[in-house]
Structure formats: C-alpha cells, structure tokens
Amino acid sequence: MTIPFIDIHTHKTPSSECGNGDNAGTYIRIINKDFSDEINDNHNLLYSIGVHPWNSINIVNDDQFINSCISTIKEKLTCQRIVFIGESGLDILRGADISLQRKLFIKQIHLSESTYRPLIIHCVKAFNDLIEIHKSTGAKQPWILHGYRNKNEQAKQLIQNGIELSFGPRFNEASMQVAWQERKMWLETDDSSSTIEEVYEKASECLGVSVDEIKKDIYERAIILLKGNDLFQK
Question: 68: domain CATH number?
C-alpha cells in the first residue's frame, strides 16, 4: 500500500470536499472546524471540532455560552468523521480571563474523555497551566499540542507529562528532534500556505531521516491514536 501524508491539523479544506475527497489516497487530513460549522458526513474527509480559546471572550456576555457550545458539539458527534475534539486550550494573549478559558477547556476535556476522541490543543504562554490541568483531570485520551515552536526544554517537559507535539512549517529544530526521538511527533499545515509535503521535507532535513521513514512512523502511530478507526484507513 501507499503510505499517505498525514496532516494532523489543518484549516484548509480540499476543493473536492463535496466529492470523494483525497483522504483515500496520498493524503489524510484532519480538518479543523469550529463548533458552529456545518459538517457533511457524506464524503471522505475527517474532522476535529471544538471551541477555540479565542472564542472564550463570548463567555463574558453569555452565561450559557459554554453549555450551549458543548451541547452543539455533542449533537454533531453523531458524525463518525469527527475523530478529534478541538482545537481547544488556553491563550494568555487572547480571549477571556484564563479562569474562564480553563472552564471552557475542561468541559472539552471531559467531552474528549467521554467520547474516546483525542484532543487537539492550542496553547500560548500557558504551558504550566496545561500540564497542571492534564494532571488534575486525569485525562487518558491523547493530547496533541499543535503548532509547537518553543524550546526543547519545554518540549521535554510537555512530553514527560503526556502531551504530544505537532509541528508546522516553522519549528524549533531541537524540539522536533526531541519529539521524534520519543515518537511523539506529528506534522501539520495549520492555516499556512505550505503543503504537507513541504512540512515533511523540512522535518526530513531537520531529523536526518527520509520522508518515507517519517511517513511510516506517523501513519503507524495514527492508526493506534484512532484505535483502528476504519474511516481513517479508507
């Protein structure tokens, strides 16, 4: 079989979304959607769905915002093509007060746990909070921190505390090397103009291993991550 390129987190939807898509061949993309977005179950694409921490600002003027969001997500999780919860998380620089962000984040952690879906995380300048929440909630589902660019010391700490790392076109090379050595590395395009092939090529240069070796490692771990979900392998 041809091992596909896996884009673990992207905001870009292929033009073929309403047709067969391209998840069946050279690429597998996990396309991020906001909790309010419509998702069509009649095609070959895979999704994550959640409430971004930037949207936490709505909590300030709407006491029911969190419960309403979670209810909306639950309704959409009947779609089997939603394989991840998120992106969710914490952002010191944008969004509501961190205490409100925590409430929203923890609700989505509980949803991840109860529906057995991994969690895609956005985190800016709140890594200690992230680790503390991971410990305090006792989360068992995999957590993947997307778009990681920080130093390798922080990468080691996150990995040691059960948080895996995903890298886009821009990354700290030492951090990527740490994640690769621990087999906790994922690759993504996020909202960049780069292709996933370009991200894999950059990772190959950084790690000194072939693109094919990276593809094989990520694909094998992705199957485990999604517990053999048949949709992932179609």
Answer: 3.20.20.140
Token readout for 217 is 């490692």
Which sign does the torsion angle of CA 138, 141, 142, 146 carry? negative
Its domain, for residue 21, covers: 5-233
Nearest to residue 102, comparing CAs of 72, 137, 73, 145?
Answer: 137
pLDDT for the residue 84: 97
Please write the tens of the pLDDT for every residue from 102-136: 999 999 999 999 999 999 999 999 999 999 999 99
Conformation bin of residue 147: beta by default, left when phi > 0, alpha when psi is -120 to 50: left
**Count of the separate structural domains present in the chain:** 1
Got the DSSP string for 178-202? HHHHTT-EEE--BTSS--HHHHHHH
Q: Are 65 and 21 in contact (CB under 8 A)?
A: no
